[in-house]
Amino acid sequence: MSIMQVEVVSNEELIFAGEAKFVVVPTVNGELGICPRHEPIMSLVRPGALRVTPADSDEEVLVAVAGGVLEVCPSKITVLADVVVRSAEIDQQRAEEAKKAAEASISQAKDDESRARAQAALAAAIAELKTLEYLSKRRI
């Protein structure tokens, strides 16, 4: 079986580091499925569910990412994410409230800095909601 090294890193911590047989990353051009020996690419990550299938399991590691950068090399994938939330830590009601609050903050922003903070919060909330949506479809 062919495997690749995967690292998912946020500003605060290492989220996942290990061997994987398949990774799906939400990019600005759509979801990208990556197998070992993939052609090298770089892409921006959009808010959504990042899925890693570890080499020793068929159970996906699922995290919400709010944006960032993806680097793919033939034997290694690195995701430098702006915000990452593990699927077990996501709460639907809190994410929906955070989305509404961020949308309100964007419309009330008085300067670029506060608008950028509100847009980052909105991206994080959207990532969590998309991850929950993926989880609910997977359970059906």
UniProtKB/TrEMBL annotation:
The family this protein is said to belong to: Belongs to the ATPase epsilon chain family.
Lineage: Bacteria, Pseudomonadati, Pseudomonadota, Betaproteobacteria, Neisseriales
GO CC list: plasma membrane; proton-transporting ATP synthase complex
Keyword Iron belongs to the record: no
UniProt topology in membrane: Peripheral membrane protein
Subunit structure: F-type ATPases have 2 components, CF(1) - the catalytic core - and CF(0) - the membrane proton channel. CF(1) has five subunits: alpha(3), beta(3), gamma(1), delta(1), epsilon(1). CF(0) has three main subunits: a, b and c.
Protein's recorded name: ATP synthase epsilon chain
Main function: Produces ATP from ADP in the presence of a proton gradient across the membrane.
Domain of life (superkingdom): Bacteria
Subcellular location, record wording: Cell membrane
InterPro entries: ATP_F1_dsu/esu_C_sf, ATP_synth_F1_dsu/esu, ATP_synth_F1_dsu/esu_N, ATP_synth_F1_esu_C, ATPsynth_dsu/esu_N
Molecular function via GO: ATP binding; hydrolase activity; proton-transporting ATP synthase activity, rotational mechanism
Keywords: ATP synthesis, Cell membrane, CF(1), Hydrogen ion transport, Hydrolase, Ion transport, Membrane, Transport
